[in-house]
Amino acid sequence: MQDNQLVLIDQVIAERQEARAVALPEATAFEVFACECALADEDLSAEEVEAGVVGGGGDGAIDGVYVLLGDTLLAEDSDIFQEDFKASQVAKGTSLRLILVQAKRETSFTETAIDLATSSTRRLLNLVLQPQAVILVDDLVGM
């Protein structure tokens, strides 16, 4: 990314921060902006985008996580997670998409950042592991 692009991005983030009732921490504001850009083709509200931001320490180098069933963003209270939900209620051919966002303010990604995100993704998608056994890479590094 060129210096001019970075300056413009910083200006957009600063304007959005000024428009908020309560400004977000700078790193979080950047992660929200990156997620909004990654999800520009989806029909998500600002609140839905913000809810998927998971950045910070122990994030396994993943800053945003979104799961869409068809065009619907899945959330904790989605019908699909209710005990009485039947898989037959989902139309045949409906896509299930996992969107992971890694946001960096640097001009390029390092191999380490990619390796951390890859390792975290493998653990998250390992159906053999119990949820409490999924420890993200950053958690292990901090131990």
SSE blueprint:
Blueprint lengths: L2 H17 L6 H13 L7 H6 L12 E6 L2 E2 L22 E6 L9 H14 L12 H6 L1
Antiparallel strand pairs: 1-2, 1-3
3D structure, described in words:
The structure is a single chain. With 143 residues, the protein is an alpha+beta fold. It contains 5 helices and 3 strands, in the order αααβββαα. Strand 1 (64-69) and strand 2 form a beta hairpin. The longest helix has 17 residues, at 3-19.
Q: Short description, anyone?
A:
The chain has five helices and three strands.
Largest sheet: 3 strands, antiparallel
Order of helices and strands: HHHEEEHH
Count of DSSP-assigned helices = 5
Q: How many DSSP-defined strands?
A: 3
Mean pLDDT: 85
> Unreliable stretches, pLDDT < 50, 5 or more residues?
137-143
Shape type: globular
Strand order of the largest sheet: 2-1-3
Q: Give the CA-CA distance, first to last residue.
A: 34 Å
Q: Which class do the helix and strand fractions yield?
A: alpha+beta
Percentage of residues assigned to helices: 25-40%
Radius of gyration: 17 Å
- Multimeric organization: single chain
Name some characteristics of this structure.
single chain; 143 residues; alpha+beta; three-stranded antiparallel β-sheet; 5 helices; 39% helix; globular
